[in-house]
Amino acid sequence: MKITDIKNSKLFDFAADIRNSRPFNLVISLLFDNADIILFFIIIFWKLLSYEKNISSSFVPMSVRLAIAASILILISFSLILKKKSRISFLYTVDIILSLILIADLMYYRYFKDITTVAAIKNAKLLKGVSASVTSVASVKDLWYLVDILILVPLKRKYKKAEFGIVPMRRRLVSFIVILAVGVGINAKTFYRVSKEQPTLLTAMSNRIYLTTMIGNVNFHIVDSYNYISTSLKNSKKLSTDEENKVKTFLQNNNNTTGETNFKGQAEGKNLIVIQVEALQGFVINQKINGQEITPNLNRWVNKCMYFDNYYYQVAGGNTSDAELMSNNSLYPAQSGAAYYTYSGNKYDSIASELKDKNYYTAALHGNTEGFWNRNVMYKAQDFDDFFGEHSFDASEQIGLGISDKSFLNQSLEKMKTFKQPYYSFLVTLTSHYPYDAVDKYGSFDVGQYKGTLLGNYLQAIHYTDAQLGEFLDKMEKEGMMKNSIVALYGDHFAIPKDNESQLFSFENESKNDDYTWFKYQKVPLLIHFPEDKYAGVNHKYTCQMDLYPTLANLYNLPKNYMFGKDMLNGDSGKVVFRNGSFIDGKNLYVSWTNTYYDLATGNKISETDALKKEKEDYTKELEYCDELQNHNLIKTFDQQKAN
Ligand code: GP9
Ligand code: MN
């Protein structure tokens, strides 16, 4: 390139002067010719590092910085095949795409504490309905990721006008191969280290955020895309008989774990009413603010019920729909995305399908549009006779996403009175939905110093929902409906996202803010009410949403075929497995994203023993079996095998 030939570019006069000076400065020339690549590297490195800092509170170690650098080199390598002007445009476009991905990932993280995946993006239409939530997880700070894109517009134009010598194809190809090899080489080392530490992390991606903190955002998306494509290809093939049998054997063992028969058939013939409450988090139960109970009605009902106070939610990418899936089927959420979408074509052995075999009428009720979370499809797949969605109600009283809990519960009760008995009603409430900002509609619950904060708004929202639930349960009792019914009520998932944990911890006077403390609050209440308040009392056993169906199956004397959870009323297992690979076994807590064990009773960190390592591997296997069952629609296969 002749510097004197640079036209229309005052901006580069300085560079031209230097380059024309004697002796000719080769380094400067090289820097100028590759300014686009250098700038791209610096900008993207900064963006990826800043993303890492957002998702991980700890210092980003050198090994991760290297992995990030390697992923950028891989991106750069592809630009090297192109001619100079196309290369500039390519790098600029990649910058735009990557910045948008990072912003989307950050928003997704704030809400789901997860990273977007190809499967989740495929289900993106689900996010339409939660636009209120999407705007509330957006942050002005994120706009930093776009600033360079604007600044670079005039610079890019001028730089493109500079004349550069033509680099022959062969030389470009060599640069591409060399840089790609360096990037892949460094990555190979990182991936090897990760796979040594946690053998299934890269393939099962059970713990996506932890993986991202180890390999960086770009590498994560490369691995995720690779896994998505290879899983799709793999699932198009039939599972071998051997693999099928492993799943079958696991289920047979899991569904016959104890010889105990406590409470067996106690609910047979009775109506079943399951109420899934939006964002009802455990800490509000029996808790006061400024001397007033937050949930006075539920507190009253807790005393009349069998109350499980160590009941964990286990939702993943499907959020509310995952809570529904687990509670009704005892199947784990999908590895990524929402099972309600990915597996809607599958056969299910749900509570509704089994109760239907016993001549029950089955109905699902929810005050939102029927298509939300693919419910219209999934309720059919789970054998509900009817789904009463927004269109089946008087939808005039709206709060947030749909019909107010007050109106929804009142109308649902009237509908239930007309149901043919015995029936199974599955109700999903809605008003206490994040970001809890319809405060004026919740009435005047005084949250004092918390007024206007996320926590304060939540307390007002859940106080409102509590009043509606109280009215609903009291009416059922007054009208004699409780005499012949079992009611199970639980929260679907957390209310206070990880991002706002400090508000929760200070409200609860927690001095620590470690993962153990975080887990302490990831419980939702479960209340099971029996006629005449029979069996009322608190049960401290470690239980979870996966356990509801096995427990109800025992109470209603239903067959247990394809359940991954445990019967809460029999046996002494304290197993709670989370989709990200974390688990509780009744004595220990394993936090997968830091690969750390805690003593459940004391909160002290403990080292991994052979037994704990085995447990970790067994639970990873368990999640994989469930994935295989869903990926290959095995309930259908197993049912057919039984019929033959
Ligand atoms: C939507 C409601 C909320 O109908 O169930 O879903 P979420 O956003 O909590 O998953
Ligand atoms: Mn929800």
UniProtKB/TrEMBL annotation:
Q: Which InterPro entries match?
A: Alkaline_phosphatase_core_sf, LtaS-like, OpgB/LTA_synthase_biosynth, Sulfatase_N
Q: Where is the active site?
A: T320
Compartments annotated for it: namely:
Cell membrane
Fetch the Pfam families from UniProt.
Sulfatase
Does the UniProt entry include the keyword Manganese? yes
Species per Swiss-Prot/TrEMBL record: Clostridium ljungdahlii (strain ATCC 55383 / DSM 13528 / PETC)
Q: Which Gene Ontology CC terms are recorded?
A: plasma membrane
Q: What is its main location?
A: membrane
Q: What is this protein called?
A: Lipoteichoic acid synthase 2
| Residues spanning the signal sequence | none
Similarity comment text for this entry: Belongs to the LTA synthase family.
Q: What would be the name of the gene that encodes this protein? A: ltaS2_1
Amino acids binding Mn(2+): E278, T320, D492, H493
The protein's matches in PANTHER family, at most eight in alphabetical order, are given as: LIPOTEICHOIC ACID SYNTHASE, PHOSPHOGLYCEROL TRANSFERASE I
The protein's GO terms of the molecular function aspect are: hydrolase activity; metal ion binding
